[in-house]
Design goal:
Layout (H helix, E strand, L loop, with lengths): L6 H9 L8 E4 L8 H16 L3 E5 L1 E3 L9 E4 L2 E2 L5 H8 L10 E6 L6 E8 L14 E4 L2 E4 L2 H8 L7 E9 L4 E9 L8 E8 L12 E2 L4 E7 L3 E3 L2 E3 L10 E8 L12 E8 L5 E6 L4 E4 L1 H6 L1
Parallel strand pairs: 1-2, 10-20
Antiparallel strand pairs: 2-7, 3-4, 5-7, 6-7, 8-9, 10-11, 11-17, 12-14, 12-18, 13-14, 15-16, 18-19
Length: 303
Amino acid sequence: MPKIWNEARLQKLIENEIEESLTLEYKSAEALDRHDAKKKEITKDVSAMANSAGGTIIYGISEFSQPEKRHLPEKITPVNRTKFPREWVEQIIQAIRPRIEGIVIHSINLSSGDTHVAFAVEIPQSNTAHQASDHRYYKRFNFQAVPMEDYEIRDVMFREQTPNIVLNFLIQINQDSQNLLVQAHNNGSAFAQFVAVFLDIPVPILQTIENKMNVKDGGRMYRHRLTNLNQEYADEQFKANFPLLRSMSMNWKIALNLETENLRESDFLIKYKIYADNALPKEGKIFLREIEIVDLRSKSNKV
């Protein structure tokens, strides 16, 4: 469920203090340089993201220098597009071997100057291992790109034989209901016969608690167990062991508290873990305020 990249979105990352993670990295404008060392660093960071879970690298946002605020975005640092055009960034990334398919580089115009931009580089998780231009393999670990062990390289190369399930989230607001829509999409080369997602959601944002045995973390979180046996299609729930084929998606719908929209300023965090056939488990998290909202109330009023 893609979003548009613009200056307002960059500012929102800064205002909301969205920390770097396995799938998000900030780089100041100075990270783009024509010296060989900086070029190698670019291929190192991009290949590490592809070799891990995929994600986004933003060139044009600096981090705080204070240790206690490290990995938090501080401010926008404009890139001069006449000196470093998007095509130059693409050329540097193409030095990665094998070439990473599906990378998208968004050029974001900035109000600070006619030649000022930032680049959001969206990197998919790859089905094989990629070498940086220094002929080494890297992965994301603790906000850094670090060398991979031999067994890790072989595990990544094994991805082509396993499904690769990624989650997307959307909040849908209707006249009398609010729902969290969870979409599982198979980016892998192999289909998934069985898919299971363990989704831990803060109790205050849920409409109901169906099973008290699923309450976790001292009553603060509720665990939903979502599988391809309990999908939601439109307004009907159905049970079918339907495999998730390559490039296909399945959806679940979870009823939210009607006040969820007003709770977005709080630090509510949704955590998840994904299991699919013989693929390695994947886990992640997303803040409630990061999830896009689709408001259908005005449309329903017109009907």
